[in-house]
Design brief:
12 strands; Rossmann fold; binds thymidine-5'-diphospho-beta-D-xylose; alpha/beta; binds nicotinamide-adenine-dinucleotide; seven-stranded parallel β-sheet; 352 residues; three-stranded mixed β-sheet
Length: 352
Amino acid sequence: LIVSMNILVTGGAGFIGSHLVRLLVNKYPSYQIITFDALTYAGNLANLKDIIDAPNHVFVKGDITSEQDVKEAFENYQITDVIHLAAESHVDRSIEGPMEFVHTNVVGTVNLMNQARAYWKTMGEHVFYHVSTDEVFGSLDLEGFFTETTSYDPRSPYSASKAASDHFVSAYYHTYGFPVKRSNCSNNYGSHHHPEKLIPLMINNILNKKPLPVYGEGINVRDWLWVEDHARAIDVIFHEGAIGCNYNIGGWNEWRNIDLIHELCTIMDFELGRKEGESAELISYVKDRAGHDLRYAIDATKLFDELGWKPSITFEEGLRNTVKWYIEHQDWVKEVTSGAYQDYYKNMYNQR
Ligand code: NAD
Ligand code: TDX
């Protein structure tokens, strides 16, 4: 095995991270991919089942906020590049407990960069890629798009923590010549998505004929992207983006929550052999999320024009694939929704 790069992927056992690790391990047999993950409630080795033992893959259990864990990983695996996805990622949890988001997302990112700077004597041939979100730009009215130059205006503790980490990444680039790249992506969907998030939560509740909790009036708009297309975008930017670059990644695919939930109900009535309209009867309007951003919409023109990336599948295909994956992987769902998830669900939804 000729090893040309040793890439540390933080958060590689999570939703997006596991799709990225799979892509890199399969596409680049000569790279060594080191998944670095603390396995919080959101991390799950089952997400990496098919590739965990691949010859060019290593799993390291470690915490990005620990100096020692990160230092050891750099030394033990001679890390040449970092793709950083580890984070607390759920907006509702950030409203209940912001401090963990500050610790993981801000302190963790700065610690990673400090350890990388200490280990990489010269910055020339290395990349530190920060995977971020469109939520840092705040909330749009019904018109307009976020571009790479839109001002930051985070409005939830989650997005504030991601904005802060983006600012630190940018500061390290300008101050120390640290070799950063960054992208800000819209809402992802696909397999292995934690059922605290809208789409897998609705699929799971439809399957179990439980109420479908729509926040507020269901009129908030999100731009949905197939998670494997996000992974493809990260691959392209990691390899071809210039040092210091930032790109917006999106699906040109905006949906009001309520319309998306109706679409899911229609697909699932069909897949489960229920009569048309049966699942939609489960829709239940509940108390709105505090500070609920009305609309996110990404303009990904720069990524298309400069690096030729565009989404590979339609939302209809992607949503159908996703529904089928959840129906066929009830063992995965059962494991993820047992224990602590039940307490989370009661706490989050019984009070609404
Ligand atoms: P996720 O919650 O599914 O996964 C996060 C992973 O990070 C988990 O495996 C968890 O164990 C790990 N982790 C958490 N704290 C850690 C720590 N202290 N040390 C090491 N590992 C730790 O999240 P996701 O949806 O896959 O998101 C991944 C990244 O992409 C995040 O940075 C998120 O902000 C960003 N992002 C997500 C979306 C989306 O729609 N999900 C969109 C844009 C950007
Ligand atoms: O039960 C629900 N009912 C509901 O109406 C849940 C969980 C959500 N919603 C609404 C809130 C949002 O308008 O659905 C929309 C999507 O909610 P989430 O799945 O929680 O995603 P969002 O808050 O948009 O954030 C996601 O996209 C950007 C990810 O979780 C972030 O990590 C990413 O940065």
